[in-house]
């Protein structure tokens, strides 16, 4: 067998942030993804989604990272080239897959358990915005036990996770209330389907109460963290649940237990990997849900920025300065 050809890739040579990244020729990945239990799923990458974890990895600040030099890029959309025996995917399938790293390249290794088929109506650009954000949104709402008819306050609603949460909430029968910081992000949240939109200005909790007949929301989904956290708890109705998705705002908040006790509130961590490690069956449930929601058109990724592979550092910089609207996607193949 002839040796595999080199592929173009965006490489982080040192943990100094995305500006240190370089476009290089690297060997086609061999073996299987480190998290794939020896199952080699090789994907011909058409587009790569980038997100906040990619930025953190480039600085050595993420819990799941690689020692440099490594190829950046946490999720891809493309065509299966090689699939393991017994896998539900075959060469030629159009898929989206979570890579964690390695995705900003012409070929990448996916994880079968975190891979979904793309409907024919969904482009690779949209597909590159599917797996991470919508898996996060679905799993967050699963963890907080969303029920039809409940209201969900969505922080960071103009970003990738936020727009995904808006759409999944609606698909599951809930009503989202989007929290955005400016007009541009409000336009994106409304494009995702939000009808109720507020700004995190002084008095925003009162506005939430007014929108919910004085009760407060049933659920808060928070990928931002920081100083809004206490007010998010105040915005909850009795028995409300807050899902902690991340800390894109930079600050890691703390909660006083008496706030939870007084109104029967719950704060729930949302971390898919350890949950799947203990309950592996949930990955199949999640994949099935995403494929069904995609096929029916109930979810449609909102892509705000599409850049070429030679502008991958710029794509990550958009996230770094919080200028991203919707999902940031790098088009690897035209």
Q: In whole angstroms, how far apart are the ends?
A: 29 Å
Radius of gyration equals 20 Å
Instruction: Please provide the ordered H/E string of secondary-structure elements.
Output: EEEHEEEEEHHEHEHEHEHEHEHHEHE
How is the biggest beta sheet arranged?
Answer: 7 strands, mixed
Name the structural class: alpha/beta
Runs in which pLDDT lies below 50 for 5 or more consecutive residues are none
- Number of E-type strands: 16
| Overall 3D form | globular
Helix content: 25-40%
Give structural notes.
It is built from eleven helices and 16 strands. By secondary structure, it is an alpha/beta fold. Strands 3, 5, 6, 7, 8, 15 and 16 form a seven-stranded mixed sheet that branches. The chain has a six-stranded parallel sheet with strand order 11-10-9-12-13-14, with helices on both faces. The two termini are 29 Å apart.
Helix/strand layout:
Elements: E1 6-12, E2 22-27, E3 42-50, H1 52-57, E4 70-71, E5 75-82, E6 94-98, E7 107-109, E8 115-117, H2 124-127, H3 131-143, E9 151-154, H4 160-171, E10 175-179, H5 183-191, E11 196-198, H6 204-211, E12 217-222, H7 229-234, E13 236-244, H8 257-262, E14 266-269, H9 272-278, H10 281-295, E15 303-308, H11 312-320, E16 327-331
Parallel strand pairs: 9-10, 9-12, 10-11, 12-13, 13-14, 15-16
Antiparallel strand pairs: 1-2, 1-4, 3-5, 3-7, 3-16, 5-6, 6-8
Structure characteristics:
seven-stranded mixed β-sheet; alpha/beta; six-stranded parallel β-sheet
């Amino acid at each position: 067998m002839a040796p595999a050809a080199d592929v173009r890739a965006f490489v982080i040579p040192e943990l100094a942030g995305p500006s240190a990244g370089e476009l290089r020729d690297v060997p086609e990945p061999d073996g299987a993804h480190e998290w794939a239990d020896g199952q080699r799923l090789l994907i011909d990458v058409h587009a790569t989604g980038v997100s906040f974890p990619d930025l953190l990895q480039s600085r050595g600040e993420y819990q799941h990272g690689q020692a440099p030099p490594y190829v950046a890029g946490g999720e891809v959309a493309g065509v299966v080239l090689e699939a393991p025996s017994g896998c539900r995917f075959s060469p030629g399938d159009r898929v989206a897959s979570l890579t964690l790293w390695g995705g900003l390249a012409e070929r990448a290794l996916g994880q079968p358990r975190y891979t979904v088929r793309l409907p024919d109506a969904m482009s690779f650009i949209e597909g590159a915005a599917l797996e991470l954000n919508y898996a996060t949104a679905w799993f967050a709402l699963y963890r907080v036990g969303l029920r039809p008819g409940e209201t969900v306050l969505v922080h960071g609603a103009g970003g990738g996770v936020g727009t995904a949460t808006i759409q999944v909430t609606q698909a599951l029968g809930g009503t989202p209330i989007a929290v955005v910081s400016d007009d541009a992000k409000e336009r994106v949240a409304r494009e995702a389907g939000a009808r109720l939109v507020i700004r995190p200005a002084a008095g925003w909790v009162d506005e939430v109460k007014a929108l919910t007949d004085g009760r407060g929301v049933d659920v808060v989904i928070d990928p931002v963290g920081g100083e809004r956290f206490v007010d998010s708890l105040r915005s909850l109705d009795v028995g409300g649940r807050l899902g902690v998705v991340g800390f894109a705002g930079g600050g890691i908040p703390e909660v006083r237990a008496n706030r939870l006790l007084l109104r029967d509130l719950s704060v729930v961590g949302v971390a898919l990997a350890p949950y799947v490690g203990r309950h592996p069956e949930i990955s199949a449930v999640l994949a099935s849900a995403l494929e069904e929601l995609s096929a029916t058109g109930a979810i449609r990724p909102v892509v705000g920025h599409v850049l070429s592979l030679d502008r991958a550092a710029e794509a990550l910089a958009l996230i770094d300065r919080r200028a991203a609207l919707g999902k940031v996607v790098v088009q690897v193949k035209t």
